[in-house]
Every structure is written in C-alpha cells, then in structure tokens.
C-alpha cells in the first residue's frame, strides 16, 4: 500500500495545509502528482516501520490484527477437533504440536487438558484484545477518522506511534508465552484468581518466563497501547475538525470511535491496575486476590492473607462488559456509513443513531456485574444490574430500527461491503436477543457457564463484529490502495462466511439448553445428559473448518488486489459524501492538498432537485453537471 512520503510544502508550522479549495471528486493522477512534487523523502524505517503518519499506523494495526486473528482462529480449529474427537491425535499438525509443545502437553499429537486450556485462554485473549478491538478501533480509527475530520494527521503523531508499538510488544509477549516451560496461560481469558495467582508456579516453572506471568505482562502492554490510542482519538476529534464540521455534521463512524475511545479510557485502567496487582501476587508475595485459608495441594498457600478473588472479577468485568461494546460500536459506525452510501439516501434518523451510540456507551458502564450473579451479591444489587441490562437493549433496538428503516425506499445497490453490512443486522440481533436471558438472574442461574453463553458471546464477538470488519475493509480498501477488491470473490467470501458462521455458533445455543458446560475438555462426552446433542460437536467443527477455507478467497483477493486490483478512476469511487473521499487516492502525508471546509451534513444523498444523487460535504455549491452513474464494481 504505497503512500507518498514527507510533508507538503504548503503547510504552516502546525501542519495544516494552506492554499485554495479542493473539490476532491476526481483526478487521482493529478492529485498524486501534486503530492509527489511536495514530498520530503523519509527512510524506509521511518516511513513503514517507525512511522508517525496515521494512515501507515492504521495499516500496521490492521495487518497485525488480521494476522493475530488468523492465529487465534487456527487455535479454535484445533480445539474443535478435540471437542469432536476427544483423545484422538490431531490430523496433519499433530506431530507439529508434539514437536513444539513436547510430549507432556501433546503426546502423540493428542491435546492434553493443559494444552486445551492454553489454546482456549490465548484464543479468547488474542481474538478479543489483540485482533478484533485493535482492527476495528485502532486500525479503522487511525486511518479513517482524521480523513473524515479533514485533519492532516492525529493530534499526537508520536504518541500514536507509541500506542502501536506498545500493542505490538504485547502481541509478541503473548505469542512467545507458548514457548516457555509449561506453555501458555491456562487460566482462561478472564484469568480468574485464585487459580491465576498460583498457576504455572513451583517446580519446573520460571518465576517470570511462565505462561500466566507473561499473559499479565502482555496484557499490560496491550492496555497501555489502547489507552494512548484512546487519548489520541478523543483529542483529534475534539481539536482537529475542519471548519464547518459541527458535532451534528460528524459521520456516524466518527461518533462511534469517540464513544469507544471514552469507554476504553474509563474502563481499561481498572483492568491494568488489576493485572499489575496480580503480577504482585505472583512475583512479590502480596495477596490482593488470595483469600485467607487458601489450601493448595494439602498445604496452606503462604501468600494467602485477606485478598478477594471477587475483587478481580469486579475489576475485570468493569472493562469486560464495555469491551463487548468496544468491539460492536465501531461496527455500528461502519454499517451506518455503508448503509447510507448504498441506499443512496440519508440515514432514517441521524440524531437517533447518534443518541443511541451515546446511550449505549453510558449504559455499558453500569451493567458489568450481570456476569457475576453466581457470586451471591444479594437481591438489591442484582435487581439494579438486571434493570440496566434490560434498558441497554433499548438504544440497540433503536439503532437497528434506524438501519432497517433506512432501507425503505432506498435505491439499494449490493456491492460486497453492503452484503456484509446487511448481514451485520441479523447477527447483531441474534447476539442481542440471546443475551437477554443472561441478564436476568433466574435464567442466568441455569444457563451460566454453559455453551449457551459461548453461543451468545460469540454472536456478538464473531459474526456481528467480523461482518462489520469486512464491510469496512471492502469499503475503504480503494481509498487506502487506489485499487478495488474483486467483487465476485468478495461475494464468494461473504456467502461462505455468513453460512458457516451460523453453522459454528447456533448449535452452541442448543447445547447450552441441554447443559453442556463451556469448559469441558471432551466436549461433554463424559456427561450422560449431553449425549443427545453431542452430534452437534461434529456439525460445529465441520462448519469451522469450512469457514477457515472460506477465508482463503479473501486472503488471496486482499493481497492480489493491493498490487493487481483494478485501479480506481476517481478519488471517490463509491460516490460518497464524507471528507475521506476528498483526498487523493491513496492520500499522501498531510492528506489534503488544500484546506477543506464542510457545508452540510454527512449523508446528503438523493436531494430533491439535485443534478446528482450525492452532495459531498466539502462542495460549497452543488454541481449542476450530471455525472455518470456508478458502474458495478
């Protein structure tokens, strides 16, 4: 994804371009030439590795996150074999498991309970904290938000670079934890004490180079990167909006990133504090989370002394539940952008959409303890969390209603981004509806820690989040690269993904109603009541393996299109209205050749009496020259 280097000469000391108005509707070659004439050459390392350009950093986040997602997905594929055929050697890669992890963890290519637990813990941790969230919030946020604001870069470019490298170090540490004696962390992605306080300690384990300690260190680096990125996003949106870009003219994606950034800024520090306290428990003998009277192996644990395991749960879930919305909120913004562009009409109610985002952000901070009903908090406090867990569904329903009504009367076109955006609606709906029973104490007592929870959770984290992720990738790919992804293979990718996502996760809801526990290493084979639904393990596993094959068209399409895809003939190939389409394609350093101003709201499509069906934010007067309709791409 080649970008021009350096800073345009037509910029003042604050880095803001100076010069005449810029229409940005077409003329890619001319704009690219203009950028090329005003560039200061940077070294390869400064440009592609230690870059302070928000677009390069966004691409770094995105590529790293997608590779992490591929790795986390691979862990799940191996786990599905164990759940379907417990105790049998993993085909093809079984010898590799033994070679990497040793005969203690993978004898004869068979997954032991410890290796299964390691895969489960790292799969959950990396997919949530190091794949989906960085891709949706930091990847798209870094690349798109400054462009949609008309800004030359993020507010703090060096802080932006530091945020990526802190995240990257966390990823390396987490991956490296597989290679230490005893393997990676085994206490789940939630790392509950007291198990997490004592795991991977004693004979055969290094004091620091062990799975659980490295999990905590990796998480600390990852959280630090997220906090730096959140501060940068908030400052950029508040301070660097183009003239005329009032709050109620912001694209909905910018609103979604702003709410997400505040959630991370408020909710991540308690978890980072908790991670440091758990590190203290493990390394320095403190007892923040170790209760009195803790007996391990028939002996009193020497570090136990008045700590509270429930304290960890409160600190973890204070972030853990907003984290669900940290993942889903950016997809709401992406889907809103794609819907408006491909229905060729404004969103049914922009203000309801925005106020719903704000309401979801606020309410997500006061529902965390619905994950903790089994801890015996008492009727009064559980009633509080039940009420607000139900209330938070209301703005979610309003937001979905806005999107549904936006389809009514629209001139709907169906390129690949729109297919993924449309699929987001039912996936988000299933995820939300299946969550309601878990928000009420009577039903949660029955369903808690069953596969029903896994099914609900994954509908939010996987189909909903990843549908939005792919919608954004296909939509903004031409702006980032100057080339289009192949639409046919995009649609092949879409249908394989949507069908087999449901093949993986819907049977989990059925198994959960039959009481299959989420942590059983054998998939329930040892429990008599689970026998009638065990055949669904094979259905889910086969679906997961075909789902993995279904990503091959995307991977080939993505990398092929970077170099060989059809070149765009306009800076605005989707005929969109927001400011990112006013830049050269791909944008050079500084983004805009000339200052831009905003004259209208973000989604002026099909305005009565207009010569075109779109009025960009940056055009002062409507062009009366009719443009050709967008061809199929």
UniProtKB/TrEMBL annotation:
<feature type="transmembrane region" description="Helical">
    <location>
        <begin position="452"/>
        <end position="476"/>
    </location>
</feature>
<keyword id="KW-0349">Heme</keyword>
<dbReference type="InterPro" id="IPR000883">
    <property type="entry name" value="Cyt_C_Oxase_1"/>
</dbReference>
<keyword id="KW-0679">Respiratory chain</keyword>
<dbReference type="GO" id="GO:0004129">
    <property type="term" value="F:cytochrome-c oxidase activity"/>
</dbReference>
<keyword id="KW-0813">Transport</keyword>
<feature type="transmembrane region" description="Helical">
    <location>
        <begin position="488"/>
        <end position="510"/>
    </location>
</feature>
<dbReference type="GO" id="GO:0020037">
    <property type="term" value="F:heme binding"/>
</dbReference>
<keyword id="KW-0472">Membrane</keyword>
<feature type="transmembrane region" description="Helical">
    <location>
        <begin position="352"/>
        <end position="371"/>
    </location>
</feature>
<dbReference type="GO" id="GO:0022904">
    <property type="term" value="P:respiratory electron transport chain"/>
</dbReference>
<feature type="transmembrane region" description="Helical">
    <location>
        <begin position="90"/>
        <end position="106"/>
    </location>
</feature>
<feature type="domain" description="Cytochrome oxidase subunit I profile">
    <location>
        <begin position="38"/>
        <end position="600"/>
    </location>
</feature>
<keyword id="KW-0812">Transmembrane</keyword>
<keyword id="KW-0479">Metal-binding</keyword>
<feature type="transmembrane region" description="Helical">
    <location>
        <begin position="159"/>
        <end position="180"/>
    </location>
</feature>
<feature type="transmembrane region" description="Helical">
    <location>
        <begin position="58"/>
        <end position="78"/>
    </location>
</feature>
<dbReference type="InterPro" id="IPR023616">
    <property type="entry name" value="Cyt_c_oxase-like_su1_dom"/>
</dbReference>
<feature type="region of interest" description="Disordered">
    <location>
        <begin position="1"/>
        <end position="32"/>
    </location>
</feature>
<keyword id="KW-1133">Transmembrane helix</keyword>
<dbReference type="GO" id="GO:0016020">
    <property type="term" value="C:membrane"/>
</dbReference>
<dbReference type="Pfam" id="PF00115">
    <property type="entry name" value="COX1"/>
</dbReference>
<dbReference type="GO" id="GO:0016491">
    <property type="term" value="F:oxidoreductase activity"/>
</dbReference>
<feature type="transmembrane region" description="Helical">
    <location>
        <begin position="214"/>
        <end position="238"/>
    </location>
</feature>
<dbReference type="GO" id="GO:0009060">
    <property type="term" value="P:aerobic respiration"/>
</dbReference>
<dbReference type="InterPro" id="IPR036927">
    <property type="entry name" value="Cyt_c_oxase-like_su1_sf"/>
</dbReference>
<keyword id="KW-0249">Electron transport</keyword>
<dbReference type="GO" id="GO:0015990">
    <property type="term" value="P:electron transport coupled proton transport"/>
</dbReference>
<keyword id="KW-0408">Iron</keyword>
<feature type="compositionally biased region" description="Gly residues">
    <location>
        <begin position="17"/>
        <end position="27"/>
    </location>
</feature>
<feature type="transmembrane region" description="Helical">
    <location>
        <begin position="324"/>
        <end position="340"/>
    </location>
</feature>
<comment type="similarity">
    <text>Belongs to the heme-copper respiratory oxidase family.</text>
</comment>
<feature type="transmembrane region" description="Helical">
    <location>
        <begin position="250"/>
        <end position="271"/>
    </location>
</feature>
<feature type="transmembrane region" description="Helical">
    <location>
        <begin position="419"/>
        <end position="440"/>
    </location>
</feature>
<feature type="transmembrane region" description="Helical">
    <location>
        <begin position="126"/>
        <end position="147"/>
    </location>
</feature>
<keyword id="KW-0560">Oxidoreductase</keyword>
<protein>
    <submittedName>
        <fullName>Cytochrome c oxidase subunit I</fullName>
        <ecNumber>1.9.3.1</ecNumber>
    </submittedName>
</protein>
<feature type="transmembrane region" description="Helical">
    <location>
        <begin position="542"/>
        <end position="563"/>
    </location>
</feature>
<feature type="transmembrane region" description="Helical">
    <location>
        <begin position="383"/>
        <end position="407"/>
    </location>
</feature>
<dbReference type="InterPro" id="IPR023615">
    <property type="entry name" value="Cyt_c_Oxase_su1_BS"/>
</dbReference>
């Amino acid at each position: 994804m080649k970008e021009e280097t350096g800073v345009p000469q037509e910029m003042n000391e604050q880095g803001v371009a100076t010069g005449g108005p810029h229409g940005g509707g077409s003329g890619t070659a001319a704009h690219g030439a203009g950028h090329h004439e005003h560039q200061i050459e940077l070294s390869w390392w400064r440009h592609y590795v230690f870059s302070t350009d928000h677009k390069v950093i966004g691409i770094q986040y995105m590529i790293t996150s997608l590779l992490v997602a591929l790795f986390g997905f691979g862990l799940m594929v191996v786990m599905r074999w164990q759940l379907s055929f417990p105790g049998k050697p993993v085909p093809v890669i079984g010898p590799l498991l033994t070679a990497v992890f040793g005969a203690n963890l993978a004898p004869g290519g068979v997954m032991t309970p410890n290796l299964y637990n390691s895969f489960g813990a790292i799969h959950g941790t990396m997919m949530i904290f190091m794949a989906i969230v960085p891709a949706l919030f930091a990847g798209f946020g870094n690349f798109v938000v400054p462009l949609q604001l008309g800004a030359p870069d993020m507010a703090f470019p060096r802080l932006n670079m530091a945020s990526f490298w802190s995240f990257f170090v966390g990823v390396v540490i987490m991956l490296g934890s597989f290679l230490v004696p005893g393997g990676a962390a085994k206490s789940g992605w939630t790392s509950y004490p007291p198990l997490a306080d004592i795991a991977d300690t004693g004979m055969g384990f290094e004091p620091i180079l062990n799975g659980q300690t490295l999990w905590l260190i990796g998480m600390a680096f990852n959280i630090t990167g997220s906090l730096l990125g959140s501060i940068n996003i908030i400052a950029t949106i508040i301070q660097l909006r183009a003239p005329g870009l009032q709050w109620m003219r912001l694209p909905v994606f910018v609103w979604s990133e702003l709410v997400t950034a505040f959630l991370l800024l408020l909710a991540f520090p308690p978890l980072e504090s908790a991670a440091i306290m758990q590190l203290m428990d493990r390394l320095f003998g403190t007892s923040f989370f170790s209760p009195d009277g803790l007996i391990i192996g028939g002996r009193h644990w020497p570090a136990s002394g008045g700590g509270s395991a429930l304290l960890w749960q409160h600190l973890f879930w204070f972030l853990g539940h907003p984290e669900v919305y940290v993942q889903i909120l950016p997809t709401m913004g992406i889907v809103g952008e794609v819907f408006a562009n491909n229905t060729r009409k404004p969103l049914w109610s922009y203000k309801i959409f925005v106020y719903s985002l704000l309401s979801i952000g606020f309410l997500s901070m006061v529902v965390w303890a619905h994950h903790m009903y089994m801890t015996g908090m008492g009727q009064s406090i559980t009633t509080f969390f039940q009420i607000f867990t139900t209330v938070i569904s209301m703005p979610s329903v309003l937001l979905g209603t806005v999107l549904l009504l936006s389809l009514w009367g629209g001139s709907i076109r169906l390129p690949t981004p729109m297919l993924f955006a449309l699929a987001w609606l039912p996936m988000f709906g299933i995820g939300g509806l299946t969550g309601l029973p878990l928000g009420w104490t009577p039903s949660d007592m029955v369903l808690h820690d069953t596969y029903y929870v896994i099914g609900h959770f994954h509908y939010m984290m996987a189909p909903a989040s990843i549908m939005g992720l792919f919608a954004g990738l296909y939509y903004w790919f031409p702006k980032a690269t100057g080339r289009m992804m192949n639409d046919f293979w995009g649609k092949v990718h879409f249908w394989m993904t949507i069908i087999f996502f449901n093949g993986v996760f819907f049977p989990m809801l059925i198994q959960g109603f039959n009481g299959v526990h989420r942590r059983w290493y054998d998939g329930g084979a040892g429990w008599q009541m689970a026998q009638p639904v065990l055949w669904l393990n094979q259905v889910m596993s086969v679906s997961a393996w075909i789902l993995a094959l279904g990503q091959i068209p995307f991977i080939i399409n993505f990398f092929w299109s970077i170099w060989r895809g059809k070149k765009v003939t306009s800076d605005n190939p989707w005929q969109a209205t927001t400011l990112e389409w006013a830049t050269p394609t791909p944008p050079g350093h500084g983004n805009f050749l000339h200052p831009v101003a905003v004259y209208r709201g973000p989604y002026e499509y099909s305005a009565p009496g207009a010569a075109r069906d779109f009025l960009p934010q940056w055009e002062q007067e409507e062009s009366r020259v009719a443009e050709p309709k967008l061809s199929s791409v």
